[in-house]
């Protein structure tokens, strides 16, 4: 399948829930539209930020279905489809492909802790089974295993594996991938704090948490980096820095949900075992939203 090369800012969107527990479809539609109108380059539903781990299959399908409908082909949709069971990952990938997504996001298997050859086998089986490009997601902080640079580069040789979201936090590892990757293979930062550094080293963009509440600024940061305007990018990065820190003051997406509630975008509702932001951190989030111009100081 031919799909757009992933570059720029992609928002790993939160999933709005109502206090009664169900997905807030109206808020989701408005939120996706706001992200696109704010300049985000692609949308990533049902990842860890989207609380996919605590959604039913029907809910997962519906969130992706709505996202595809609202985007209407204007930007790519990179649907989360991860599982630590390869057969389940393939089944969910086929389900997402049937909805018209442009790409699939797959984290390295969590809990199982496969060796590097097992990680290669997992992603290869998925990429062989579907006709939608696969993005590899390396996030050792959640999966308990790192996808090493040689493993990522081996996967990059597969014609249906198009990118990596790199959240290892290791710039040397990311730079090794950048030095040896195929030209068609995108390297995306998975850490908002490292976006500027990764793109300065030659990376292609960011799959962002902070763009949930500051989509225009994070998109502009990525655009300026891509254009080589690193002086302008540094100024934006500095403006974002308070929010970049605050967005992870508790487990993601707790701070993002709190910020979006303050902005009136959705209710501050999370699925257990995630819980709302501690009251003592609310001033921190409000201050960060003021710093990015989203709220009055």
Order of adjacent strands in the largest pleated sheet: 2-1-8-7-6-5-4-3
Q: What pattern of helices and strands is seen along the backbone?
A: EHEHEHEHEHHEHEHEHHHH
Task: Report the C-alpha radius of gyration, rounded.
Answer: 18 Å
How many helix segments? Answer: 12
Mean pLDDT equals 97
Q: Please name the CATH topology.
A: TIM Barrel
Specify the biggest β-sheet: 8 strands, parallel
What is the molecular shape? globular
Distance between the termini: 48 Å
Q: What is the CATH domain class?
A: Alpha Beta
| CATH architectural label | Alpha-Beta Barrel
Q: What is the domain tally?
A: 1
Q: Which percent band covers the strand fraction?
A: 5-15%
Uncertain stretches: none
Number of strands: 8
What structural class results from the helix and strand content? alpha/beta
| Percent of residues in helices | 40-55%
CATH homologous superfamily descriptor: Aldolase class I
Secondary structure: elements and pairs:
Layout: E1 8-12, H1 25-37, E2 42-44, H2 57-71, E3 78-80, H3 86-97, E4 103-107, H4 116-129, E5 134-138, H5 140-143, H6 149-156, E6 161-166, H7 171-180, E7 186-189, H8 195-200, E8 205-208, H9 215-226, H10 230-246, H11 254-262, H12 282-291
Parallel strand pairs: 1-2, 1-8, 3-4, 4-5, 5-6, 6-7, 7-8
Helix pairs in contact: 1-2, 3-4, 4-6, 6-7, 9-10, 10-12, 11-12
Care to describe what's here?
The protein has 297 residues and is of the alpha/beta class. It has a single domain (8-229), classed as Aldolase class I (TIM Barrel). It is built from twelve helices and eight strands. The chain has helices spanning 25-37, 57-71, 86-97, 116-129, 140-143, 149-156, 171-180, 195-200, 215-226, 230-246, 254-262, 282-291; strands at residues 8-12, 42-44, 78-80, 103-107, 134-138, 161-166, 186-189, 205-208. The chain has an eight-stranded parallel sheet. Helix 9 packs antiparallel against helix 10 (230-246). The model has no long low-confidence stretch (mean pLDDT 97).
């Amino acid at each position: 399948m031919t799909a757009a090369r992933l570059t720029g800012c992609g928002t790993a969107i939160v999933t709005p829930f109502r206090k009664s527990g169900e997905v807030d479809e109206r808020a989701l539609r408005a939120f996706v539209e706001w992200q696109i109108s704010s300049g985000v380059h692609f949308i990533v539903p049902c990842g860890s930020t989207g609380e996919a781990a605590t959604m039913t299959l029907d809910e997962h399908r519906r969130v992706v279905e709505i996202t595809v409908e609202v985007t209407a082909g204007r930007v790519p949709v990179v649907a989360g489809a991860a599982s630590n069971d390869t057969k389940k990952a393939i089944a969910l990938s086929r389900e997402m492909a049937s909805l018209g997504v442009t790409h699939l996001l797959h984290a390295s298997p969590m809990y199982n802790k496969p060796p590097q050859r097992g990680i290669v086998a997992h992603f290869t089986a998925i990429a062989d089974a579907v006709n939608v490009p696969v993005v590899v997601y390396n996030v050792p902080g959640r999966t308990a295993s790192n996808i090493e640079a040689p493993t990522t580069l081996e996967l990059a040789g597969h014609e249906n594996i198009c990118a990596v979201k790199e959240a290892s936090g290791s710039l040397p590892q990311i730079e090794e991938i950048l030095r040896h990757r195929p030209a068609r293979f995108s390297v995306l930062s998975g850490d908002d704090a490292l976006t500027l550094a990764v793109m300065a080293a030659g990376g292609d963009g960011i799959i962002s948490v902070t763009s949930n509440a500051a989509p225009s600024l994070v998109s502009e940061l990525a655009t300026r980096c891509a254009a080589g305007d690193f002086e302008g990018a540094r100024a934006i990065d500095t403006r974002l820095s308070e929010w970049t820190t605050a967005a992870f003051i508790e487990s993601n997406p707790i701070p993002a949900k709190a910020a979006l509630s303050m902005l009136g975008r959705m209710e501050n509702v999370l699925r257990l075992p995630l819980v709302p932001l501690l009251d003592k951190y609310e001033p921190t989030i409000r201050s960060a939203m003021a710093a990015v111009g989203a709220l009055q100081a």
